[in-house]
Design goal:
This protein is α+β, with helices and mostly antiparallel strands. About 30% of the residues lie in helices and about 25% in strands.
Length: about 180
Amino acid sequence: MSDTAITYTVYVQADPARVWQALTEPAFTRRYWGLDFETDWRVGSTMVWVERGARTSDPEQVVLECVPNRRLAYTWHTFTPQWAANAGVGEELRAELASERRTKVTYEIEPVGDTLARLTVIHEDFEPGGTLIGMCGRAWPMLASSLKTLLETGAPLPEQGHANEQGSGGYEAHGRGARGSDA
């Protein structure tokens, strides 16, 4: 991890098409991440993030690249008051996140032999020393591991602090707590 980018790689016992499904299909993303995307995955299309009933949309929240089973990139989401309320994020933390520049996430999927895929997550363009990079630096290993576990076992990792909910992508589970204090 640099001061403006995170790169995380995980090997998944699945073919690239299955990893692609896990990244793009709501039936998968809801299970390991607790959210889904409303988009057609065409370059330039907007993405609506749906998390715990909150719909977060913004004209700058778009698909940047889409090569099925190989590469997907999009701008990271918008930190609205509605999103924060539904995610249990306090206003002070939400305002910090919203003041930082928009970032970009890229997934690179590569076959490794006949039974493995290498998934590399590159999240870049962070504010140096910003709040978001610290949160995402803690969240991506859990998210990628939960995706891997879901594809390999049929169940995602349990969400930390939320034993009755599936998925492991909430901000409250990673680093700065839901109310904006250090966890």
